[in-house]
């Protein structure tokens, strides 16, 4: 869908709201007034959450999940809000079922803040990392409020997915080190996947992270 520059329209069966080479109309009865909002210029468009539902007809499961995370972050909606929006259109529509399955795959917690965070989270979940939550809020003594991208609070283990360039800059590196030290003082272990790890060695990096998670869990099991 990234290279699709056409205008996509929703319309009930038999309606033709627009024609042209760059217009695609999807005919369906599966939408209502609550799925539509009016822009300041008067144009009627689907809401962000409804647009994410329509994308279930085009996207694979992981990209669809990333879209859902973005919608949750930008709208403040909850998982249950998305389920309530989609469920009335469920019978006989496989794309709606795919959407609901994607919502159910979400890792617990607030919305992910980046696509790499979503990708890594799903990879950890597929490798049986138990108790995983997203965007875990914590107050670190000597540092202040912080959020871990991914965490298993019961064993005080966290993973940061550092793909933004600021993490490679002097100030970003210093801030990360200071936060990791503050976490260590309250017995939290923080692992990190950097931009180079993500872009060049993601599978290897995740495998190594999972091994450290398992060692951490084993330590807590023994104590």
Task: Give the arrangement of secondary structure elements.
Blueprint: E1 7-11, E2 23-27, E3 36-38, E4 44-46, H1 48-54, H2 61-75, H3 79-86, H4 94-104, H5 115-126, E5 133-140, E6 144-152, E7 157-162, H6 170-185, E8 189-194, H7 195-200, H8 202-222
Helix pairs in contact: 2-4, 2-5, 3-4
Task: List key phrases describing it.
alpha/beta, 4-stranded mixed beta sheet, 8 strands
Could you characterize what this model shows?
It is a single chain. This protein is an alpha/beta fold. Helices cover 43% and strands 20% of the residues. It has eight helices and eight strands. The strands form three sheets. It has a four-stranded mixed sheet with strand order 5-6-7-8. The protein has a two-stranded parallel ribbon with strand order 1-2. Strands 3-4 form a two-stranded antiparallel ribbon. Helix 6 (170-185) links the parallel strand 7 (157-162) and strand 8. Helix 2 crosses helix 4 (94-104), helix 2 crosses helix 5 (115-126) and helix 3 packs antiparallel against helix 4 (94-104). The longest helix has 21 residues, at 202-222. The chain is elongated, with a radius of gyration of 21 Å. The mean pLDDT is 90.
